[in-house]
Amino acid sequence: MGSIDTSPTAFAAFGDDTSFQPLNADDVRSYLHKSVDFIYDYYKSVESLPVLPSVEPGYLRRQLQSAPPTSSVPFDIAMKEVREAVVPGMTHWASPNFFAFFPSTNSAAAIAGDLIASAMNTVGFTWQANPAATEMEVLALDWLAQLLCLPASFMNRTAAGRGTGGGVILGTTSEAMLVTLVSARDAVLRRIGSDGVAGITKLTVYAADQTHSTFFKACRLAGFDPANIKSIPTGADTDYGLDPAKLLEIMKADVAAGLVPTYICITVGTTSSNAVDPVGAIADVAAMFNAWVHIDAAYAGSACICPEFRHHLDGVERVDSISMSPHKWLMTCLDCTCLWVRDAHRLTDSLETNPEYLKNDVTDSGAVTDLKDMQVGVGRRFRGLKLWMVMRTYGSAKLQEHIRSDVAMAKMFEDAVRADDRFEVVVPRNFALVCFRIKPQGAMTEQDTDKANHELMERLNRTGKAYLAHTAIGGKFVLRFAVGSSLQEERHVRSAWELIKKTTTEIIKGEM
């Protein structure tokens, strides 16, 4: 067996003044000052940058060396390459001319909170591993739950003490769906007395066909038979929301066939059209079969901090879990998806791990729930700080003002579309997304119309002055205009509308 060389020369490289010190305090200050200056310049100039870059796949490898460097360089060299190579290849989600997808909002408070959390670099898998990180996450989630008027049963802490429910901040909605699907699966398997997962082929899950595709992916990851993942058709008669009567009919037929209804995903604000599934009515159907009900309010949940939108969550007291993502519309940078459950034990029963090296007296006392036991992995970032910083810095009044401003701009755009007889609004606007299209003109067929709308989107995006995305609703090619980028003002929405009108005139006239 070898031994450690303790001769002075063996450690000389680490003991002199030129040794590698990646956390040298002076370097940290210098690098961060330069990074902050870069961020300041970026936000001041992003409006003038093309929203979509005009680069080809593989461009970055050609601009930066393909092999890892051996020698060090001044930090300024790396920053120069970021400016000259990285920025030109960015799709600028921060641009006020970004209207393609649900926003990826940000704020000074969130950036500061995320920076501090990253600098501390804690791994808060248990309460003991970082008490402040766990306590902060619990507090931030309870604050946000109160803003959403969630029942006390979803709280980590209530006026009476520790609650039965609880929450956790995850990276994405996909994770929230996955952990609740696994918990619902295990609970039903125990209930039907299945040996291991032998009975999983009987379990069924349900969602509207407008539900985000990540749900169906999560179902497969959780082991559900693809044949038992029921995508229920929707239509214009329900504004593309899930029909409770149709759901009940399908679930009854499944029970008659020997299947076991296990999980229903309700969406408040679907990605394609912002459709809202009726929470209370679906929860009533689910109760007949003792199925888990989850609300995916990833985008529109943020709007529900405003009293005028809270009715979309009516009936939430009868569901098992709900998730929403402040990184979409509540000024908190990625990644931040909040999940609340009515009974935290239903999650931990499926997700708990208890290796010897993580055992401690606080966990054993039952006074805390270790957040590692409410997620897929064990390690986790200090996500709670940035969410708390946003709520603490701005307060509920400013956050509500932010939501209402975006909704008002979306309504302004919707009114402009409705006033131009060349266009139509395809579905009612619920929040800050407008789904519209050029409608058939003269002898145009539906195929011609789809082609014209596709051409409109392509031309707009090529200009670099606006970025829109599309979806399919009722078999039609439809443009999505999503208001909500943190830097957006009315002038950006008006400018985009003028560009849309001008480009549409060119298309209808047949100009290339």
Automatic annotation (TrEMBL):
Q: Which InterPro entries does the record associate with it?
A: Aromatic_deC, PyrdxlP-dep_de-COase, PyrdxlP-dep_Trfase, PyrdxlP-dep_Trfase_major, PyrdxlP-dep_Trfase_small, Pyridoxal-P_BS
Q: Which cofactor does it need?
A: pyridoxal 5'-phosphate
| Annotated Pfam families | Pyridoxal_deC
Modified sites of kind N6-(pyridoxal phosphate)lysine:
328
The answer to keyword Lipid metabolism applying to this record is: no
Q: Keywords, A to Z?
A: Decarboxylase, Lyase, Pyridoxal phosphate
Q: Does the keyword Ribonucleoprotein apply?
A: no
Please give the SUPFAM superfamilies that the UniProt record associates with this protein: PLP-dependent transferases
Q: Name one GO molecular function term.
A: carboxy-lyase activity
**GO-annotated biological processes:** phenol-containing compound biosynthetic process; primary amino compound biosynthetic process
The similarity comment for this entry is: Belongs to the group II decarboxylase family.
Q: Which PANTHER family match?
A: GROUP II PYRIDOXAL-5-PHOSPHATE DECARBOXYLASE (PTHR11999), TYROSINE DECARBOXYLASE 1 (PTHR11999:SF153)
Q: Report what the protein is called.
A: Aromatic-L-amino-acid decarboxylase
